[in-house]
Amino acid sequence: MKLQITNLSKTYPNGVQALKNVSLFIPNGMYGLLGPNGAGKSTLMRILATLQEPDQGEVHLDTIDVVKQKEEVRKTLGYLPQEFGVYPKVSAENLLDHFAILKGIISRSARKEVVEALLRQTNLWDVRKQKLGGYSGGMRQRFGVAVALLGNPKLMIVDEPTAGLDPAERVRFLNLLSELGENSVVILSTHIVEDVSELCTRMAIINKGEILHEVEPLKAMQRLKGKIWQKIIEKSALPQMEHEYTIISTKLLSGRTVVHVYSEEVPGDFDLVQPDLEDVYFSTMAGHIGNRKTAVA
Ligand SMILES: Nc1ncnc2c1ncn2[C@@H]1O[C@H](COP(=O)(O)OP(=O)(O)OP(=O)(O)O)[C@@H](O)[C@H]1O
Asked: Global pTM?
């Protein structure tokens, strides 16, 4: 299974160009699509999920033309959208059973088996009789995965799944996703760098509708070695620092500010640090690395 996206573009009627000539090759496994709010992730996900038409470009899932053969794609698609409604007064077990009928699993015994397996896989078996209205955010997301997994999808699309989850729920949810990637294409769209670094062997960084960088996280971090420098400063010193250096990111740590700078040479009184995926992301966004390399530090 593989997904080939070629020169995909989409402009909304209000003139916003959400995707600009996007091309990506996505093999089996967990693929991360990382970008800030408004980057075009959901637009791309909706096109892949056959819910929206591109203006231009092609998408192929193996031999299936995703734009033209929507019914074919839907047979093999699992989609967990950013937001989805549930019937609050229905139990997880009953609603999943209902969706299984819609997915074409007519036989009652086959359905019983599938519903039980999915509820166990998503760790909802013990709470299957509870009404969905009483589920926590994490439980709802896991229920969304159970629905998306009906019919053994070969293409699974998960759009910003961990936003709003508490840390324990997030870990549980990411563990669940990590089990899915082996025999299908799983695309995880997110603005949270850790989601990608924990799960994905390949990823793309997108901003303003353009793919800025396609990378394997481990290799990209290696390539940045020797170029990311850190200094811990008082917050009040930040404006001066911004004036003197190309800062790629700032973070607060116990009330002080941790500054990261991209530089191929020693930038002064800084400590060299081991680059992480956040450094890859911010160096790409700042134009130091990637397809749209614009700045040289
Ligand atoms: N239906 C629409 N009509 C007009 N503009 C839209 C529509 N949907 C999205 N946009 C705009 O297209 C751009 C890309 O939006 P999109 O939702 O794809 O980004 P995103 O990366 O998923 O961001 P977010 O995480 O905020 O959802 C944004 O500027 C957004 O305002």
From this structure: 0.89
